[in-house]
Specification:
The chain is of the alpha+beta class. The protein contains 3 helices and 3 strands. The longest helix has 14 residues, at 68-81. Mean pLDDT is 78; it is low at 100-108.
């Protein structure tokens, strides 16, 4: 961690020691282990994930995916924004809520 701190200082950045950790990027080719093998960054969870190669073999790679915490936040925002059981909303109101606004409202 000291080497990382020194490198960050060279580019005028600093490491937040309470939030920073070194994660081991485990995959099919790296067989070792470490205390931390995943981390969250900008709403993504980076961790070893299993996938099927083109030849059909199951392999493991260190890949990102949306974090569970971020999925929950997005789902809650959608539930709050859209009145799923309400049919008394105007088409203009529904269109203002999202992707429907891209449609030509005269065709609806």
């Amino acid at each position: 961690m000291q080497a990382i701190k020194e490198r960050m200082a060279e580019v005028k950045l600093r490491v937040n020691e309470t939030k920073s950790k070194i994660a081991y990027c485990k995959d099919s080719w790296r067989k070792g282990g470490h205390e931390h093998n995943s981390y969250k960054f900008l709403g993504f969870q980076f961790q070893p994930r299993t996938f099927r190669s083109k030849s059909g073999k199951m392999l493991q790679s260190f890949k990102p995916a949306i974090s569970i915490d971020n999925q929950t936040k997005i789902k809650e925002a959608i539930r709050k924004a859209i009145y799923w059981n309400s049919t008394n909303q105007s088409l203009e109101r529904i269109a203002d809520l999202g992707e429907i606004s891209q449609l030509d409202k005269t065709q609806v």
